[in-house]
Amino acid sequence: MCIRRPGACRPGRCVLVLPMTIVTWRGPFSNGEVNLLHSQAFKTRAFSDDEWDWVTLVERHSLGWVVARAGELLVGFANVLWDGFTHAWIQDVMVASNASRQGIGTKLVVVTRDAARAAGCEFLHVDFEPDLYDFYIHACGFQPTPAGLMHL
Ligand SMILES: CC(C)(COP(=O)(O)OP(=O)(O)OC[C@H]1O[C@@H](n2cnc3c(N)ncnc32)[C@H](O)[C@@H]1OP(=O)(O)O)[C@@H](O)C(=O)NCCC(=O)NCCS
Questions:
Q1: Which end of the chain is more exposed for a tag (fewer CB within 10 A), N or C?
Q2: Which residues of the chain have pLDDT under 50?
Q3: Which residue range forms the structural domain that includes residue 49?
Q4: Which residues contact 35 (CB under 8 A, 6 or more apart)?
Q5: 3 located within any domain
Q6: Do 96 and 76 form a contact (C-beta atoms < 8 A)?
Q7: What value does the mean pLDDT of the chain take?
Q8: Whose CA is nearest to atom 6 of ligand 1?
């Protein structure tokens, strides 16, 4: 479904005008939905359910996950890892490209923050490319901090 917003469409890009988006902690989702959303958001090929079994992974390893739906349609998702005690990490934050800049990404982070806090966590971590500084630091409220990353 693609509802055109007046003036928002140009060839090759159509913006979804969303009905109310519901953002749910540990909401139900299917592997096919998240693999499709991942391919759209990160511009990768669509992994098959056998290659990337999100349902099993998040249930086994994550503190939780966040699902954003506009009606039936999955428009956002985030995976939330943790150390089992005080630190949580938000990972794989993704919003459908035709639903971006409507506040969904920010809501995914707010719901994650509240759920991690309710689980007893004291810190929520994220790492990101420099072009997302405005999103994570200004819009979502993370504080900039030195961090390290090792490619394995
Ligand atoms: C990054 C992403 C999650 C943002 O989701 P979103 O729903 O578009 O974000 P919001 O609408 O909540 O954005 C809030 C504000 O953050 C900033 N922002 C959002 N996306 C931005 C981007 N790509 N570049 C710079 N600033 C951005 C803007 O200030 C925006 O406010 P504005 O629309 O009034 O200018 C989404 O674009 C996405 O899925 N990107 C591809 C996957 C990805 O890179 N994920 C992050 C992995 S670390």
A1: C
A2: 1-12
A3: 21-139
A4: 46, 47, 48, 49, 52, 54
A5: no
A6: yes
A7: 91
A8: 105
